[in-house]
Amino acid sequence: xxxxxxxxANLSHLDRASCDDSYEAPLGLCCLAALxxxxxxxxxxxxxxxxxxxxLITARCxxxxxxxxxxxxxxxxxxxxxxxxKLFKHIxxxxxxAPDGFEKYADFAVLDNGKSSVYRILKGEKLAGICGADxxxxxxxxxxxxxxxxxxxxxxxxxxxxxxxxxxYQPWLGLQDQTSKIKTxxxxxxxxxxxVWLKSSGFKGFHFRPSGITGETxxxxxxxxxxxxxxxxxxxxxxxxxxxxxxxxxxxxxWFYKPNNIAELSERLKELKSAGVLCGLHIDKSFCETAxxxxxxSVDRLVIEDCADWQHDELKxxxxxxxxxxxxxxxxxxxxxxxxxxxxxxxSSYRILDILLERKGS
Length: 362
Prior knowledge:
Elements: E1 6-10, H1 27-33, E2 40-43, H2 49-56, E3 63-67, H3 74-87, E4 92-95, E5 108-110, H4 115-122, E6 129-131, E7 165-168, H5 188-200, E8 205-208, H6 215-228, E9 231-234, E10 251-257, H7 262-274, E11 278-283, H8 285-295, E12 301-304, H9 312-324, H10 328-334, H11 339-357
Parallel strand pairs: 1-2, 1-3, 3-4, 4-5, 5-6, 7-8, 8-9, 9-10, 10-11, 11-12
Helix pairs in contact: 5-6
């Protein structure tokens, strides 16, 4: 096994309670590791990430950088770092954000994509404190060349386009891949290389999470996916609804994440449905309390996040309201056209029944 100098650890699933079994690939970390694949490793075990990180650390290792989700338990992260330092006193520990008091358990925080920090570590520097944001042209990350090792990455069945659909956040942002605080978009040539790389790794469908996509970039993306003969879905920002004007094949789904302009979105949903595009809504508890009931009758797909934050009775109410309104459950069953749609329906049905039949407090 190679002696890696930097370990990039994906902790995005450490404190997660989603309503499905989705497991996203750490594409941003893969791009960062591509700077020096023989010296940088990515740890991405869903169940035993601590054990995987520990197994990769040798005497040559200089640093472990943790990629944290936006919402996490500080106590769990602190404990993770403390236990790691007990075993490996020679390493420095970094994280991809700078919350108050992070110095108690981490040596440094990286606020940009990580490229400059990684190069400094590889040169022998010991980082401390907050490492600034580098947004220069030179900070652009490469697209990996080595095939992505599929560790069972899955997408919510409601978002499945075909067997082998992968979710893409903003991998060009490296350590900030899954942030919702920054919305950017890469040059189309970079994105083309990313799609080609993922296709060569065995993925066939691409779900683009919210980013800085606009109407013009959607036109370019649509042309790219047409040339690659690949199905895709997008998630435009709700304050840029003009981005959906290029909604045409091979675009199959458009997803809206916790939108705020309900009236405008409701009108646009009607236009999209008439154009034959499936529309999805990705919500959390706070959205449902304010406007969710206005849209459950208009959308074709629904994904609920952070199930642990919901009252179980409220969660069951929303699921019943969505699936039984307009006969959605039976319509989905009747309209199954291929194996991919059958798999998605079976997975969704299983999770629906699991929630509906679960007793409160069980």
